């Protein structure tokens, strides 16, 4: 799967799925809130980005930009970027509905249209990274636009989930795939044109991508399923979440 094919598929998928995605998950994500993952970990509680007031922040793969609006409310200067015009349409609607206006940019995460060293923080909650064929290039681009000492934080589906079916029930507790099979998950239309592409990397792969780009990994968070959280989000469920992790959050810094 080439980077161009993966990019086309992701743009087309999220443009077409934006309405359904927001209808299903919009209330969980909120209009002005920073939710890192289906486990419900919030930046307001976790403080993974550190002090954000007065910081220049770029959110890539922003979706409807609820995280960016929360950062703006906390005093950050934010740009919210996404590949999908469909998702940015919902971001614009969210700006209007909430009264919290953040700049919106349609941009490929592997070719960020910014000068070097202009941001203090770059972040994404399940955006961009899992859908880019050359994710090592995304790491290099983020490193480029961060100032020395800047922070890069991103959440993804935990790589070990690749071993299991996307089944929130008992069928999703049985290992069926090799953790080391790095072939992309691809859905195709009737003409065999890719319509959805998601990439798999191991934990070690992700760490090597970060280190190779020049980052120092400072933390790796695997959120536990909280008591009282009984909602199901796709493959995420209380049954699976209480047995093995569903999310990995990487925190890295660009050396000063």
UniProtKB/TrEMBL annotation:
Residues 58-153 form the Methyltransferase type domain. CDD domains: AdoMet_MTases. Keywords: Methyltransferase, Transferase. One of its GO terms (molecular function) is methyltransferase activity. GO terms for biological process: methylation. It comes from the Bacteria. PANTHER family: METHYLTRANSFERASE, N6-ADENOSINE-METHYLTRANSFERASE TMT1A. This is Class I SAM-dependent methyltransferase. It comes from Dactylosporangium salmoneum.
